[in-house]
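User: Before I run my own analysis I want an independent prediction to cross-check against. Here's the chain; please return only the structure tokens and, at the end, one sentence I can use as a sanity check.
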Amino acid sequence: MFLFSGLTFSIFKKSEKLIISTIILFLVLLLGFQIYAQTVAKPRGIDRGQSASFRINTWQQGLTLFIKFPILGIGFNSYRYGIKEYNLGDDQFLQSHGANTNDSSVLYILSTTGIVGLISYSAFIFFLTRSGGRKNIVLIASLVGLSIHSIFANSLFYPFILIWLLFKGVDTEN
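Assistant: Structure tokens:
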């Protein structure tokens, strides 16, 4: 997310200095993540592979529900019940908070509201961007990064992100 947002912002600003700075900062973040993985996660037994496996499983659940209900989806508050009805998760998973949503915002929108919901949400974002104006580089760069991030996490529904997008989209002075 950082890399895509930073590069988008740098390209709009037409600054090679910002592009190089973004890439260097991204590499520093990768190095920091590697140091964290070796010094904190590995000694404490944090298994990133298991976490990735669970994430892929929720993606498969969301895709299955979308395929079954492609036009209107299964319904916004019916996600857990769809997983139960189509045997997409065990009892332990169904009792967890993770059964209420998907790890991907895009798959969550598709599985709960279908193509109609995805088009509606996309139109909302498009008109938000248009109202913010083409000169609102920060909003556009943020949306590029958020779009990438929302594939891997349910970030489109974080209230603080939505509120910030709304304020940035209606900000006429940018």
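Sanity check: Helices lie at 2-13, 16-41, 48-68, 79-85, 91-95, 105-132, 137-152, 159-170.
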